[in-house]
Write a structure and sequence with these properties.
Chain lengths: 325, 274
């Protein structure tokens, strides 16, 4: 192989390479790049798992079920690293985000594809796409400075004034909360959801829409009974893709969630997510056993993201094959 | 009955003398100002099959879709002239399109059952759109519509199977059942057999002849034998100078295929163009 390559190079230098040999070089370069990429990916995953192993060995199931996070310092045997609050916080914020994004995003996609006059379609579509271009720290700062006061002054008191509001939503203390994090995440994943759901809705065969209308269905019935059911698998896929993004979002969440390691289930209470905890603890953890525990949380987050993204790809391609019969 | 030149059959009845289910007066359809069909005028006889024939692009589909206002969805489409359903002007008469479309059903070129619905749900979809909720009513309607569409016997054991499990011909008959369940007065069919094999085609042709006892049928076909086999009245459309479809001749089918009035009709049915 080496000698072949050097021959090729010599011929290249002489300016008359045969095309078969040049293709050989080209393939070699492409294959090496692909191989390198595969090695880097494996190394990436492998080193995270490797770093997580000591924590898994020492903490065991406590990593998933424990709620204290204390470092034993010089005596690692005293360390307790429980990730339950981060896990529940991640699930709660992501669920809030996905529910909001799916409801608002599906409506937006229907409006852009079917309901708005054409000059407004472009404006609406561009606006949503531009949301994706805003750096996440901007969302975080905006959430912290603009929305958090609003949660204290308006949203929180309103939710608390509902019957049973305190029990369900918790009492508003600071604006930073699971709810605010979920809301900011919803806006951040909206462009992703809308991009896929627009494609899904746009791919619902026109002949089905016509079939529906020709039976006397109204426009709303056509949307509810024909378009959304036909696209439901793809819309689930879009939701899963958005969920994958919400799970891993870090910077914005750190700024709006309150960052307290507490097992909270009420949306107006503060909390923490896997990603935000890893980012905020990193500085003090380097070189200690706490670092291994953070790697374990990272591995969990990675597995969840990969799983969700795999599911989303499967759903979206199942939708494609459904409508392209 | 009346004497029509070129017809000697004593059983012959001129469908043009029957009561009209729909009437078209100077109907034109344009897309973005470009005329696709121009000045079509004829009556659709009640409880008969009317065929629209003509070469590809002569505006058959376009004309058919003006009859249930399906062009309302198409940007840039405009329909002019007058179309009556009975005495009601379907564009100017104030009849809601949802009501209109439950009185004028449609079957499309490619079978298009709702893929996420079962056979049963497809059959009753139109009734549900129209607000029928009672299970006994829906059940009875499903059986009756599927029976009318010659499908009941083969699906009664698997009403909860998905529509996609049916063959192409069965799917098309399900679409016919779906349209019939709403009990429309008129059934529009746009080349309903063009995607089907000969046996399925024959079944649907026989079905049309049976169905006309209760519903008026307008069928688009580019298959002249089909028009000759199933229809009572035939309208022949042809593109004019500016490529807009024009009505060349509307005659009783028997006459149109044996002694057409227009030379261009003769040329077409003898396969000289199209
Ligand atoms: N939605 C549409 N937009 C623009 N032009 C159309 C549309 N539908 C049909 N046409 C035009 O109208 C003419 C007649 O088409 P069509 O009614 O489909 O013919 P046929 O069914 O007889 O083959 C064609 O020139 C076609 O391009
Ligand atoms: Mg056509």
């Amino acid at each position: 192989m080496t000698s072949n390559t050097s021959t090729d190079l010599r011929q290249a230098a002489e300016g008359h390479r045969p095309s078969a040999a040049s293709r050989g070089v080209y393939e070699y370069v492409v294959l090496s790049a692909a191989g390198l990429f595969a090695i880097i990916s494996l190394y990436f995953v492998g080193s995270i798992v490797w770093q997580a192993l000591p924590a898994i060995r020492h903490q065991g199931l406590y990593l998933l079920t424990g709620t204290s996070w204390v470092s034993g310092g010089a005596t690692p045997a005293l360390s307790k690293f429980g990730g339950l609050s981060m896990i529940t916080g991640t699930i709660e914020t992501s669920l809030i985000a996905i529910v909001i994004a799916v409801v608002v995003g599906t409506g937006t996609s229907l409006a852009i594809n079917l309901l708005l006059p054409s000059w407004m379609r472009t404006i609406a579509a561009t606006t949503v796409e531009l949301l994706a271009a805003i750096p996440s720290v901007v969302y975080g700062v905006w959430g912290m400075l603009v929305l958090a006061p609003l949660v204290i002054s308006t949203v929180g008191p309103f939710l608390n004034s509902l019957p049973g509001g305190n029990a369900v939503f918790g009492t508003v203390v600071a604006g930073q909360s699971l709810l605010l994090a979920g809301f900011v995440l919803a806006i951040m994943v909206l462009p992703t959801y809308v991009a896929i759901s627009r494609e899904v809705i746009g791919a619902v065969p026109h002949e089905l829409i016509e079939a529906s209308l020709s039976l006397g269905a109204t426009r709303w019935q056509t949307i509810w009974k024909t378009i959304l059911p036909t696209g439901r698998v793809g819309l689930l896929g879009a939701g899963a893709l958005a969920l994958g993004r919400a799970l891993g979002e870090t910077v914005a969440v750190v700024l709006v969630i309150g960052q307290v390691n507490q097992l909270n289930f009420r949306p107006l209470q503060p909390g923490v997510t896997l990603a935000s905890w890893i980012a905020s603890q990193w500085g003090e953890a380097i070189g200690s056993d706490q670092m291994n525990a953070l790697f374990a949380l990272g591995a969990l987050l990675m597995a969840a993201s990969l799983g969700v993204s795999f599911i989303s790809t499967r759903l979206v391609s199942r939708q494609r094959s459904l409508v392209n019969r | 009955m009346t004497s029509v030149s070129g017809i000697t059959d004593p059983q012959f009845e001129d469908p043009r003398l029957l009561p009209a289910a729909m009437s078209l007066r100077d109907v034109s359809v344009a897309f973005h100002g470009r005329v696709a069909v121009r000045d079509v005028t004829f009556d659709v006889p009640a409880n008969r099959v009317t065929a629209l024939i003509g070469p590809s692009g002569s505006g058959k589909t376009t004309l058919l879709r003006s009859l249930n206002r399906l062009h309302d969805l198409t940007k840039g489409a405009s329909v002019s002239g007058t179309i009556l359903l009975g005495d009601t002007d379907i564009y100017q008469g104030g009849i809601p399109t949802t009501v209109l479309r439950s009185r004028i059903g449609m079957v499309f070129q490619r079978p298009n059952p709702f893929p996420t619905m079962t056979i049963y749900e497809n059959a009753v979809a139109g009734l549900r759109f129209n607000g029928v909720k009672k299970k006994s009513v829906l059940d009875a309607a499903a059986e009756s519509a599927l029976t009318s569409a010659d499908l009941w016997d083969s699906v009664k054991q698997r009403l909860n199977a998905h529509a996609a499990t049916l063959s192409g011909g069965e799917q098309q008959r399900l679409c016919i059942a779906r349209a019939l369940a709403v009990e429309p007065e008129v059934l529009l069919m746009d080349e309903p057999t063009s995607a089907l094999d000969p046996i399925s085609t024959k079944r649907i042709e026989e079905l049309m002849v049976e169905l006309k006892k209760r519903v008026t049928i307008v069928i688009v076909t580019h298959n002249m034998q089909q028009a000759a086999r199933v229809s009572d009245l035939t309208a022949f459309l042809l593109m004019g100078e500016d490529r807009a479809g024009e009505q060349i001749e509307v005659s009783p089918t028997l006459k149109l295929f044996s002694a057409p009035e227009d030379q261009r009709t003769l040329d077409y049915i003898q396969g000289r163009f199209g």
